[in-house]
Amino acid sequence: MQTTLKKSTDPLSVGADAIVVFVAEPAVATGTVAAADAALDGLVGACVADGEITGEVGQISVVHTGGLIGAPRLVVVGVGDGSIESWRAAGRATGARVRAIKARTVALAIDDADAARLTALVTGVRYGAYRFDRYKTSPLDPELTDLRVYSVVVSPAQLRRATRLADAVGAARDLANAPANDLTPTALAARAAELADQTTGLECAVLERKELQKLGAGALLAVAQGSDEPPKMIVLRYTPKRRAAADEVLGLVGKAVTFDTGGISIKPSGGMEEMKLDMAGGAAVVEGIGLIAQLGLPVEVVAVVPATENMPSGTATRPGDVVRAMNGRTIEVINTDAEGRLILADALTYAVTEAGATRLVDFATLTGAIVVALGEVYAGLFGSDEDWTAAVRAAGEASGDLCWPMPLHPGYAPLIKSKVADLSNAAAKRQAGAIYAAQFLREFTDGRPWCHVDIAGTGMIGGAGTGFGVGLMLAIAEQLAHTPRH
Question: Torsion-angle region of residue 471: left (phi > 0), alpha (psi -120 to 50) or beta?
């Protein structure tokens, strides 16, 4: 989708399939809305008077203009209290509606909205207009291809940031939504390599089975051994031309189980097709580091994405097996469907011991327990360092990728103990499931400031990937760029 900034003070005269204007609650016609009302002989004001236009967030009214302005339709969208979150919701509603009316060229008249609201709007529009249709063979309706932003306030650089963020979120959604027969660990590694080839300062290395064996990545290899698809450890490193802090390396780790049957502890068949989405965290990390590199932020970043399938077979890991992780810890596999924490254990260890990460954030569709606790609005946020956890939470608020802090406490430590090994990957007690998983992961962070973001509820909604985490990673990196830590 082409997105351009226009500095015209008269967006109503432009040729487009639809012109979109925005009104706060309670609805008062000002700026471009007032100009549209005048051009349409008071039609917008009449809709306000009749209560058809209230300014409620996400409320949309489509007015046919009869040729009185440059587009056949004027779309009036409510932004509620005008908060950033309200602009984001308004954008999503706008994207869905302009797609429904088959508009290909859309002009957004945002008047005096600032860069943060612009970003929320543009990413929201792109989110609402998104569709995953590459496997459709029937003729499709026209899609939104040209988005024109009319503003005298925002800069080209601010729109470029918003557009690239929207592109990266869309790319992460495409990866997550692709079927597992196409999006294999090998295919995900190829996408990472392609991104590195296209992006200045970004390098990609893919560790194959033999290299993983030499490193002692027994936890990742244990999950992979039931599948014919070879596992990959995807390592992306972004080295900026200058650094805000020479001794800081941000480590991003993303779970990429490209299909999860549960292994020997097999999942119920109902809804199993959605388990192609169990790599949403890895997809977000691949596209997130690509975005950070494209924007040239002065922060060194390393991304580690363990990619595998989790399949049942004669070679699959069995419940009761003991495996040795890369850091030397032994793990009793109680439940083969608790595989995400196993592959993340080796990835976190690699990020610290081999890639030099000084602080970590991992993203994973890890536990159903977090969905029960927080639903689809907030991701679960767990952290080993109070300041770092607060910083990640603040980045979530700024980006719209909301995270709610969850407890880690020594009282939960007995849950991860095993009778026959150092650790157990699942507990006999059915309690604190999301906390248990986070407590397990902490064992592989080597004391670094670390946060775990459980996106099981936010990374895949309604059987589709959301791209959750890409914006959060960008906000974290920007935060480090402006307030370097020592």
Answer: alpha
The average pLDDT across 370-382 equals 98
399 assigned to some structural domain = yes
What is the total count of domains within the chain? 2
CB atoms < 10 A from the CB of 413, how many? 12
Per-residue pLDDT band at 29 (split at 50, 70, 90): confident
**Residues in a beta bridge with 3:** 147
Q: Which domain holds residue 220?
A: 166-482
Q: What is the pLDDT of residue 27?
A: 85
| Ranges assigned E (strand) in 226-288 | 232-238, 249-254, 256-260
pLDDT exceeds 60 at position 486 = no
pLDDT at 335 over 80: yes
Q: How far apart are CA 484 and CA 245, in angstroms?
A: 6
- Would you say 367 and 439 are in contact if contact means Cβ atoms under 8 Å apart? no
pTM here is 0.96
Domain endpoint, select from 154, 174, 193: 154
Q: C-alpha 111: how far from its chain's center?
A: 29
Q: Which residues are catalytic?
A: 267, 341
SS3 105: strand
- Using the predicted structure, report yes or no on whether residue 158 has a pLDDT greater than 90: yes
User: 255-281 burial by CB neighbour count: b if 16+ within 10 A, else e?
Assistant: bbbbbbbbbbbeeeeeeeeebbbbbbb
What average pLDDT does this structure show over 114-131?
Answer: 95
Phi, psi angle pair for 397, to nearest 5°: -65, -40
Q: What is the CATH number of the domain that holds 110?
A: 3.40.220.10
What are the distances in angstroms from CA 371 to CA 195, 330, 378, 434, 455?
A: 32, 29, 9, 9, 8
Distance separating alpha carbons of residues 229 and 243, to the nearest angstrom? 38
Please give the angle made by the CA atoms of 469, 475 and 477, to the nearest 5 degrees: 105
Round to whole Å and give the CA distance between 147 and 11. 13
337/422 same-domain check? yes
Contacts of 178 by beta carbon, 8 Å cutoff, 6+ apart:
134, 187, 276
Residue 93 within any structural domain of the chain: yes
> Residue 63 falls within a domain, yes or no?
yes
Section 236-249 average pLDDT? 94
- Whole-number Å distance between alpha carbons of 429 and 449: 29
**Is 403 in a helix, a strand, or coil?**
strand
Query: What confidence tens digit (pLDDT) does each residue in 45-71 have?
Result: 999 999 999 999 999 999 999 999 999
Is 270's pLDDT higher than 90? yes
146 and 210, same structural domain?
Answer: no
